[in-house]
Amino acid sequence: MEFPIVIGNWKMNLTPHESEIVAKKIVAGLPPQGVSAEVVLCPSFPSLEVVERVIAQSTISLGAQNFFWQESGSYTGEVSIKMLKEIGCGWSIIGHSERRIVLRENDDEINKKVKLALAYDIVPVICVGEKYEERQAGQKDFVIMKEVASALKGVDKFNRLVVAYEPVWVIGRGEAIDPEEAQSVATLIKYTLRDMYSHEVVDNKIKILYGGSVDDQNVSQFVDNELIQGVLVGGSSLKPETFLGIINKLTSKC
User: Fold this and answer.
1) Which is the catalytic residue, given 38, 105, 147, 166?
2) pTM of whole model > 0.90?
3) Residue ranges per structural domain of the chain
4) How confident is the model over 165-206, as pLDDT tens digits?
5) DSSP string, 185-249
6) CATH architecture, range 5-251
7) Is 96 among the catalytic positions?
């Protein structure tokens, strides 16, 4: 059985000093030899270096929440993949619904970011999920298949990537979807991927995660290590005890 993946997305919530405190508590809560899970922390850009220093001697990996789709240039306010790589990022979230909706990030930009991440050996965590109105209109499956296919258009070779299903309408509401529905969507994602790649590639190089109001009380209901192989955690990752509880719940299943 492969280890589950637990990714903490801190969003725009902690200052560098606060990030250091939270990261230290998480590191202190894990055994020195590590755990039977891949743990990734994704702080905001200003906090990346301080968190990298905190986790340097641990088994936790560093991830980013975003980067620009060009390698360099006159793009005021943006951050490049090269910068993230130099700091020590090995992962990056791509296409989170908050960026798709609030910042109008489109499928073409997301596709460019996926290709750029892979070129720099950074694991892309591609977020997909339907809005409430799309769900009500019966378009959920179409939206998810389209987002997966668009993100991976022209992506032929890779060692590893992650697809995270986050139903947009539950993010931040403290209310997760029914675990059986999450499993159903994971099956849909896997079939969509198998239309694009061989079964061997899908089974060995791509992992599917669930995200959306995940906490230490419900996480075990979602992750089965067959279809859903980990979680992308938002608000609960800001609370060290809860985040550690999520990790412990998943590692106890291994």
Assistant:
1) 166
2) yes
3) 5-251
4) 999 988 767 677 899 999 999 999 999 999 999 999 999 999
5) HHHHHHHHHHTTS-HHHHHHHEEEEEESS--TTTHHHH--SSS--EEEESGGGGSHHHHHHHHHH
6) Alpha-Beta Barrel (3.20)
7) yes
